[in-house]
Amino acid sequence: MKYDVAVFTPYSFRVGQKIHIEGSRRRGDWEVAAIGEHKVTLRCPISKKEFEWPIFCYFVEEKHDEVWPRES
């Protein structure tokens, strides 16, 4: 039998990359500050505070010519 299957692939971050997270408690604009084997450090572009989290993001789409950081 055949089914519709959702496939998730961990995202390959790049240091310095500007990202926007939707639908998560970490939602908002971030800059990738560091990448480890199992963790990623994200920096808030406003407060400059950094947070290290287990890698949790999955790629959805890439947008071009977007305003960043966004105004809420």
Characterization of this structure:
This protein has 72 residues and is mostly beta strands. Helix content is 0%, strand content 31%. It contains no helices and 4 strands. It has a 4-stranded antiparallel beta sheet with strand order 1-2-3-4, with no helix packed on it. Strand 1 and strand 2 (28-35) form a beta hairpin. It starts with 17 loop residues before the first strand and ends in an 18-residue tail after the last strand. The mean pLDDT is 87.
Question: Could you give a quick summary of the protein structure above?
Answer:
This protein is mainly β.
Could you outline the blueprint of secondary structure elements for this entry?
Blueprint: E1 18-21, E2 28-35, E3 39-43, E4 50-54
Antiparallel strand pairs: 1-2, 2-3, 3-4
Order of helices and strands, N to C? Answer: EEEE
For the record, give the distance between the C-alpha atoms at the N and C termini, rounded to a whole number.
46 Å
Report strand %. Answer: 25-35%
The tally of helices reads: 0
Please outline the major beta sheet. Answer: 4 strands, antiparallel
The parts where pLDDT drops under 50 for at least 5 residues are: none
* Overall pLDDT level: 87
Radius of gyration: 14 Å
User: Quaternary status of these chains?
Assistant: single chain
- How many strand elements? 4
Strand order of the largest sheet: 1-2-3-4
Helix-strand category = mainly beta
Percent in helix: under 10%
Bulk shape: globular
